[in-house]
Design a protein that fits this description.
The protein has 455 residues and is mainly β. Helices cover 6% and strands 25% of the residues.
Amino acid sequence: MKQVGDETQVTWQVQLSPLVMDEDHIQTSRGAQIMIPSTVKDVSIKLTHMPNVQWHRGDAAQGEDPEKTYWEDLDGNPLPEEKIIGWRNDTYVPTKEVEYQVPIVDSTAELTDNDTYKVSSFVKNPHGSLADDEKGRYGVQPSSFAEQPEWDFYQIGLNALGVYTFEVTGTVEAVGEDTYIPIRADNMLWKCSAEGGGPGSVEEGCEGLKNYEWGRTGELPPVTTKEQSEETRNKIVELYKKQAKVDGLTGVGACAVTADIGRFDTIGADIEPAVDGKHGAYAQEFHFRLNPAVNYYGSLNGDEDNCDQGFQHITLCPDEESEVPPSEEPVESEEPKPSEEEEVGPAKPSKETEEPTASEEPGESEEPTSSKKSQEPGESTSSEEPVSSESKFVPSAQSEQGNPAESKPESKPESKPAAKTVISESVKDNVAKQAKSVAKKDRPKVTTGGHLRAA
């Protein structure tokens, strides 16, 4: 953008997965939420990838083993058992590319289920504003920085096992030389006794997970606003410069940043330590060990706190028609000029990334693939081997499917720097101004959920 007050469109990629689903289709924690400052206007959310799997216990009348779980894709085609999450298998669930503009409604009474895409509508601010949330049902605290805006909470029911990928788009206004717009997502909302429906509620007989310390994600990241004093804004900019990583914003709240591994069928591990007591807390709280006959699927163990946070960084650029003063014009034959526009700022708020190899890049060219280090969870001594369902923010990425990352089995019982360009000394000042370009083309990605495992 060219000046303060200009508006631009920003997009995040957000990956979410249900916290828990069980083999008997009874217990579930299906709700997830995407949190965005209210300074982001005209928000729309599109589903781009969804799980392509379903399962049922064997039916003796159909000649099936009643002690066995049968896995199929959504069209009813059998899936090889070795390709599905389990005790000794790689942890991923097949996905498929879709395009569905998810409705956003203003109350739970307006919620609808879409059986084709296995999601409910998004309900915006179901418990009112954050300022009025005396019971802490959103599980967050306002930022400690001065002059902070309200936040909007978009909650959804995820009704299939696996990873959902959304594109969140909105319009923001430049408030200074640097404008930072954070985003957070988590999937710890309600424990319910039936699948289907929205994110969950007391009326459905669900139990709120925000009542537990391990279900809360703490202080929200700060937002730069036009109402702030220059001193406050400078402090916020300094925080992002120090704590922003290619994978997300670290060290704020009880929300560990998740690594972006550039895939749609599984989610990476956290890149920073989680708050004590978060890992495995759900399984311990609800005594999964006392029901060893049932498998539970979810991100219940391993390096995953079921939360992620990222941001968009917008800077100002000079008027394209401005000319370089004659005294600063480069001498012909000197080193080449750089391209007219250079991008700055973190490519995405997620986690440490690796450049993907040719074999790892997605075959589809419509969306760029962001690659992250794959998670290798350690051996677990508990009887739970949950499916990872975490939230994470990363730039839009498309990854090759059917190539699961290696992960250690658990027993049942128990921004790359921009390429340097040689620039003539006489034009360095002008180039520095041009480098302050519009919002990053890379889409920050947020992902909630780790490797998928049986528990």
